[in-house]
Every structure is written in C-alpha cells, then in structure tokens.
C-alpha cells in the first residue's frame, strides 16, 4: 500500500467508488423491475394462483351438464328433453368460453398448456360432442341406447375430465410453489449480493482513502515543518527532507530538497560575494586613503621627531648656545645633564623618537606597494622566485630569532607544466616571503612547539592560472581571525613584532597589481594553506 | 660656527616649522620661516636666501609653484623639498630649475642632520660632486 503513487490510489479509489455505486444502482434497478407488482415474476406467480383458484373447484359446467343429462334420461316429455338439450348446449358454451380464456393466458408454459388444454379439456370436449351428437338424438328418438351412452361413454368422459383437471391443478400448485420459492431464493441471493458488494466497496474505499490520507498527511506535515523552518530567520540550510513513500510526496520532497540546495548555493554565493565586496571595498578605500592619510600622519610625526631631536640636541654640552643658556639660567650643562640622567629624560626622549619612527615605518610600509613604480613586469620563473624567497627566509634575521627556525623542513613541490609568468618578481617574492614568515611565526605559537615543523611550497597549474601554495602544519587559524586576516593593521602579534600590514600588502600586490587571487584555507590544529593564483596570460 | 647665509623654511605645520628652524639655528644657520608661499615670496625678495626648504602641500599657493616663481626672482637660491607625501616624485619642471633629486626629503626624517649636511654641501658649492658620486 505504501509504495503506490497517489495518482494510482486516487484512480483506483474513484474506479471502485464509481463501479461500486453503479453496480449497486444497477442491481437495485434490476430488483425493482423484476420484483415489482405486475412485473414478470409477479405475473407468473399470479397466473399459477389463478389456475389453482379457478380450475380447482369442480368444473360446474360439466357437473351440471352431467346432472342435466341424468334428468333428461328419466324425463318422458320430449318437450322437457328439448329444454334440457338447450341447457346443455348453453353449458357447452360456458366451457368454450373458459377454454378460450385459458388458451389466451398460456404463452410461456407449454407443459401447463398441454396439461390443461390438451389433456384436461379433451375429455370435456368429447363429453359435449357425444351429448350433442349421440345422446340427445338417440334420446329424442326414444332409442334405448341413449341410456347406455350416458352410463358408458359420457360417464367415462366425465370421470376422465375431472381426473385430468385435478392433475392440472396439482401441476399448477406445484409450479406456483416452485416459482415462489425460486423467486424468494433469487430475491435473497440478489439482496445478499447487493449487501456484500456495497459493504465491500465501502470497506475498500475506506481502507484506501484512510491509507492515502494518512500517508499524505504524514508527508505533508514533514514538508510543512521543513518549509516553515526554512521561512525562519536562522533556517538550517543543510538539513534535507526525507520521505520514502516512493510516490508524488517523495517527488515533492525531492523537489523541495533541490530548491533548498539552490537556496543554499545562492546564500553561499551571496555571502562569498559580500565577503569579497566588503573586502575589496575596504582594501580600495584604505588603499585610496593611504596616500592622503600618510601625508597627514607624516607631518605631525615629523614635528614630533624633529622636536625630540632638537630637545636632545639642547641637552648636549658641546653646543655654545646651550652653555650660554645654562649660564644665563644660573646653572651649568653638567648640572642639567646630571638631572636629565637621574630622571631618565634622555631615554624618554629617545623613546619618543623610537615610537615616532615605528609609526613612520607603518605608514611607509602601507605605501610601499603603491610607490613601487620602478619595478617593471617581466617574465619570471615562479620556481626561481620561490627558491630565492626560501633562501631569503633562511637569512632573515627576525626568523632566526624565533624558536628553532633551522628545524623547519622546507618541501618544494613544483609542477612542470607552469610557464613563466609576467609579474613583478620582487613583489611576488615579497608575498611568498611574507607567507613563509607567517608560517614560521605560527609554529612558535604552539606550546609545545610543533613536532616536525614543515612548510610546503607548491607551484601548479590550474586552467589559465598559475597557483602558488604555501602550506604549513602549524596550529591553524581560528575562523574569527581567518575572516579578518587580510585587513590592514590586523595582527595577532604584539605591536613591537608585527604591523598587521604584511597580508594586506600581499593582498594588494596579488589582487590589484597582478589581477590574481589570494585566499586562505585553515584547519585549526592541522595547519594553514595560503593559495595565490596568478593569470598566465598577462593583462594589457 | 655661525654662518651668515640665510636659510628659509616654508612649512604650514607649526611643529615641523618651529623644530626645523630650532635645529638649523642650533646648527648655526640664520633661519627665517613662514607658513605660506605668498609671504615666502616676500621674504625671498627681501633677503639673500641661499637655501629654501619648501613643503609641497601648502594652504594657497603650493610649494612647486612657489619654487617656479622664486627661481625667477632669485636664480641662485637652491630649493630643498620637504614633503609628507611618500609617493611624491620630483617633476622635470623643477629639475630644470635646479632642484636636485637628492634634495627631496620625505617626512618624517629619523634625523635632521642629513638636511644640515646637505645645506653645508650646497653652501660649499660641492653638491654636484656628491650627487655625481
């Protein structure tokens, strides 16, 4: 029952309903027509009863004729005999009328017809014929044989007729009984059939519609739940509807699943799109603002650094103006220097300069990539650029400070089918070096240090792009950091170590200067992979 | 150590202007200063300025126009450029007016000593040698 399509179930239900109803109706009509008053069955039963009622009483015409003949036998008056002869002829007429009546009644039963009309009435016929043709002529002649005819032939005919009539009545009675019981049986049979058929149809319809309703309701409630959940704000787009009814509801569920998949895809694309949009807007605005901002920051920085330098100069004891000013103030440069030394003033001034210089570095790095106009694009072998970047990483002083840089194993996986790329070599190197530095830094984050730190540098071709991958087996990047990793000034290191410009600059170099892409994949605990793609065809 | 040569500082940032003046004065130069190009032209006309240190972005007339005009008034004056725009590239028009690429300084300088040194070289008439080196 479960795996039949709803369409088939509905068809079967409709068919059963229609056929059942039509059958019940047809049966009812047939019963009504067959058993109605004056119907064929009624007619047959009534006919038999007529025969019984009409034929059963001793036929008066022949009894009376017989008695009349006896009266004639004893009468002497020939006038009276003539009267009696007329009476018998009238009785014969009665008999003929009755014969004609029954002759007209029998259409359907030859056996009854022959029993009544041929066997029963033949002796009566003979009786009246003998009375008419033999008895009365002899009696009127006064012939003695008349008496013998009455006692012989007429008596035989009379007796025979009565006996045959009785037989016919028995036959009719039996037939009437048979017909009645047959009819009762037929009525009973058809009534029972009608009942069984209608009960079966009703039962079938009920079971079918119950199963259909139940399965449809079960499926719809699942679907409605899912659709309502989808309409909510925090809809779970990964869940799928599961209906295993192998009917239209399952197809509906599969359709809804496909729609959910499409929505999920759209949402993901939109989210990715938004992420990229937000990203590039941020990049562009920061990139565009950087130059203007740099100017505005550099001026106050210059004021700060220059003043600090001048102040430091004015604590020097080898400048005439300082000596004069000290003397005019009633003190000496030695005293002033001693004071500044005790109060740590020169160190503080030096700290101001250091801080200012760091700020100046940040600004300079921020602009470094956009000022690099002299670096022309050339055809570069990525393998060569990457090898050099790895070399540079080894000689990088900052990295050597880190824990066990020498332990890091470098794996190079360079595919053969990557052609030389039009790019600014130093920029690409800067990006790769930066990625290696970040990976090396990541190894230090994990306590204890990663067992066998490994950085894999990969070059491969993907359609019309060259792909550079820098992969480490470090601690990975948590999702909330990964999202912001390309933002300017975003760093997880302390301010002395990182400016938060490295990946921002890399992003700019790859996206803006080379028309490529840079993305990051990370599994916390398993490692991080940066993927840089560069178009093989140079842009013009 | 005192030098009678006049130095002019043109910078609209008071902190930068004052500290640069103070530094150069400590180095022994006679220093005049102003925050705008218009009054700088007046000072240039009134005093025998040997070296002018000019900011590029100024309120009103810009540093480049100031140099172009001042060069017409005093062809002997040497112009240094001191700018906060790290992407500033010296235009050919200014090179023709005697501005040396080595005399473009980007703010902030870690030490102003390089400026003082360059002024001394210019005053000693040796700057070309240095540039050629």
Question: Could you characterize the architecture of this molecule?
Answer:
The complex is a heterodimer of chains A (540) and B (133). The two termini of chain A are 68 Å apart. In chain A, helix 3 runs antiparallel to helix 4 (78-105), helix 3 (60-74) packs parallel to helix 5 and helix 13 runs antiparallel to helix 15. Chain A is of the alpha+beta class. In chain A, strand 6 and strand 7 form a beta hairpin. Chain A has helices spanning 6-35, 40-55, 60-74, 78-105, 110-141, 145-231, 248-314, 320-328, 333-342, 345-371, 382-394, 397-401, 425-445, 479-484, 502-514; strands at 378-380, 409-414, 421-423, 454-462, 465-472, 517-523, 527-535. Chain A is rod-shaped, with a radius of gyration of 64 Å. Chain A folds into three domains: 12-198; 280-371, no CATH class; 378-535, 2-Layer Sandwich (Heat Shock Protein 90). In chain A, the strands form two sheets. A five-stranded mixed β-sheet of chain A has the order 2-4-5-7-6, covered by helices on one side. Mean pLDDT of chain A is 82; it is low at 370-374. Chain B is of the alpha/beta class and 133 residues long. Chain B has one domain: Rossmann fold (3-Layer(aba) Sandwich), CATH 3.40.50. In chain B, strands 2-1-3-4-5 form a five-stranded parallel β-sheet, with helices on both faces. In chain B, strand 4, helix 4 (92-96) and strand 5 form a beta-alpha-beta unit. The longest helix of chain B is centred in the first third of the chain and has 13 residues, at 14-26. The relative contact order of chain B is 0.16. The model of chain B is unreliable at 129-133 (pLDDT under 50).
């Amino acid at each position: 029952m479960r795996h039949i399509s709803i369409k088939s179930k509905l068809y079967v239900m409709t068919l059963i309903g229609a056929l059942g109803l039509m059958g019940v109706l047809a049966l009812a009509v047939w019963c009504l027509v067959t058993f109605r008053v004056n119907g064929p069955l009624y007619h047959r039963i009534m006919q038999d009863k007529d025969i019984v009622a009409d034929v059963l009483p001793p036929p008066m015409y022949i009894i009376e004729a017989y008695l009349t003949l006896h009266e004639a036998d004893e009468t002497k008056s020939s006038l009276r005999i003539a009267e009696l002869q007329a009476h018998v002829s009238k009785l014969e007429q009665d008999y003929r009328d009755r014969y004609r009546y029954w002759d007209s009644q029998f259409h359907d039963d030859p056996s009854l017809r022959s029993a009544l009309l041929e066997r029963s009435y033949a002796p009566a016929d003979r009786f009246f014929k003998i009375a008419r043709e033999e008895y009365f002529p002899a009696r009127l002649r006064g012939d003695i044989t008349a008496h013998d005819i009455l006692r012989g032939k007429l008596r035989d005919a009379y007796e025979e007729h009565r006996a045959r009539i009785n037989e016919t009545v028995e036959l009719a009675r039996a037939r009437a009984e048979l017909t009645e019981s047959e009819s009762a049986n037929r009525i009973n049979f058809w009534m029972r059939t009608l009942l069984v058929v209608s009960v079966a149809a009703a039962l079938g319809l009920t079971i079918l519609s119950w199963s259909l309703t139940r399965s449809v309701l079960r499926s719809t409630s699942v679907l409605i739940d899912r659709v309502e959940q989808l309409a909510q704000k925090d809809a779970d787009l990964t869940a799928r509807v599961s209906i295993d009814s192998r009917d239209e509801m399952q197809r509906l569920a599969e359709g809804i699943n496909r729609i959910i998949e499409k929505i999920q895809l759209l949402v993901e694309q939109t989210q990715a799109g938004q992420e990229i949009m937000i990203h590039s807007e941020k990049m562009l605005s920061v990139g565009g603002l950087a130059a203007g901002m740099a100017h505005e920051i550099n001026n106050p920085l210059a004021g700060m650094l220059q003043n600090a330098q001048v102040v430091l100069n004015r604590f020097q004891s080898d400048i005439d103006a300082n000596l004069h000013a000290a003397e005019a103030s009633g003190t000496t440069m030695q005293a002033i220097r001693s004071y500044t030394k005790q109060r740590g003033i020169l160190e503080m001034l030096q700290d101001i300069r250091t801080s200012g210089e760091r700020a100046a570095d940040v600004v300079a790095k921020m602009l470094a990539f956009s000022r690099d106009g002299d670096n022309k694009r050339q055809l570069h072998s990525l393998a060569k650029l990457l090898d050099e970047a790895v070399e540079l990483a080894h000689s990088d002083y900052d990295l050597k400070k880190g824990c066990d840089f020498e332990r890091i194993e470098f794996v190079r996986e360079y595919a053969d089918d990557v052609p030389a790329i039009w790019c600014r070599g130093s920029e690409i190197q800067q990006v790769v070096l930066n990625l290696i530095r970040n990976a090396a830094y990541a190894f230090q984050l994990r306590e204890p240090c990663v067992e066998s730190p490994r950085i894999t540098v990969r070059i491969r071709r993907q359609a019309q792009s060259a792909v550079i991958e820098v992969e480490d087996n470090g601690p990975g990047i948590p999702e909330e950091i990964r999202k912001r990793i390309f933002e300017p000034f975003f760093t997880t290191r302390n301010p002395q170590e990182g400016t938060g410009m490295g990946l921002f600059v890399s992003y700019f170099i790859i996206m803006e200067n080379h028309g490529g892409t840079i993305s990051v994949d990370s599994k916390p605990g398993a490692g991080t992979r940066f993927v840089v793609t560069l178009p093989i065809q140079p842009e013009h | 150590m005192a030098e009678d040569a006049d130095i002019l500082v043109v910078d609209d940032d008071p902190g930068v202007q004052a500290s640069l003046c103070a530094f150069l004065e400590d180095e022994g130069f006679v220093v005049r200063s102003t925050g705008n190009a218009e009054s700088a032209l007046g000072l240039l006309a009134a005093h025998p300025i040997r070296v002018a240190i000019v900011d590029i972005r100024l309120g009103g007339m810009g540093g480049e126009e100031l140099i172009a005009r001042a060069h017409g008034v005093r062809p002997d004056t040497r112009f240094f450029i001191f700018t906060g725009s790290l992407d500033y590239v010296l235009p050919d028009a200014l090179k023709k007016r005697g501005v040396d690429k080595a005399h473009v300084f980007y703010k902030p300088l870690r030490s102003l000593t390089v400026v003082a040194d360059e002024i001394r070289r210019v005053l000693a008439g040796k700057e070309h040698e240095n540039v050629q080196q």
